[in-house]
Amino acid sequence: MTDEPDLDSAYNLDGPEDSKRLYKDWALSYDADFASERMYLLPAKVAEVFSGHASEDDAPVLDVGAGTGLVAEALLGHGSWPIDGLDISPEMLAVARDRGLYGELLEVDLTQPIGLRRGRWGGLVSSGTFTHGHLGADVLLGLLDLVRPGGLFVVSINVEHFEDQGFAGVFEEMEQFITEPIFVETPIYGAEIGDEHDGDTAFIGVWRRR
């Protein structure tokens, strides 16, 4: 993996320690150098979908892979949601903390046993975390218990990653625990800068825990 903080290096991460190194270097410039340059649409779209399906019972909300707080910022544009954030990078969480968007921020490696209280949240959002070099389908199973029965999940999954990492099979495993998921495909970026990622898309999955 290159240490240069850019989309290619993010897509080629190899495990949690790689993630920590990359986002340590990228945290302070992430919003300007990546989100703004590429017109990163996905966090706002995830927030829009969540707010379109949610009720007051779907709070508080857990933002998985919170990063610098892009989803929380967009979600708070739709209402006064209490939001907690979770991320592997303390440096990204520090940026999010300075923005004052979250109640609690948790530094967690989701590839390890989570160790958080079951049913603590009423809803869960995630944008850009289930993608190349980041989290695989198996992590979804571990997230289910964090949300109380009936709670709403709105999770983005990179379309190529969905196919490569066997997400369809994991959703089959989760059938007895969740309502039938709805998937909407959406562009990840709004700007074309002339590389192979210009047309990248993600599924936004919507389901409730039974």
Plain-language structure description:
This protein has about 210 residues and is α/β, with parallel strands linked by helices. The chain has a single domain (about 40-210), classed as Vaccinia Virus protein VP39 (Rossmann fold, 3-Layer(aba) Sandwich). About 35% of the residues lie in helices and about 25% in strands. The protein is built from 9 helices and 7 strands. The protein has a 7-stranded mixed β-sheet. Strand 2, helix 6 and strand 3 form a beta-alpha-beta unit. It is globular. The termini are far apart. The mean pLDDT is about 95.
Provide the CATH topology: Rossmann fold
**Domains (count):** 1
- The topology string of helices and strands comes to HHHHEHEHEEHEHHEE
Radius of gyration: 16 Å
The first-level CATH class name: Alpha Beta
Q: Which percent range describes the beta-strand content?
A: 15-25%
Structural class label: alpha/beta
CATH superfamily: Vaccinia Virus protein VP39
How does the overall form come out from the CA principal axes? Answer: globular
Terminal CA distance reads 40 Å
What average pLDDT do the residues reach? 94
Main sheet properties: 7 strands, mixed
Which percent bin holds the helix content? 25-40%
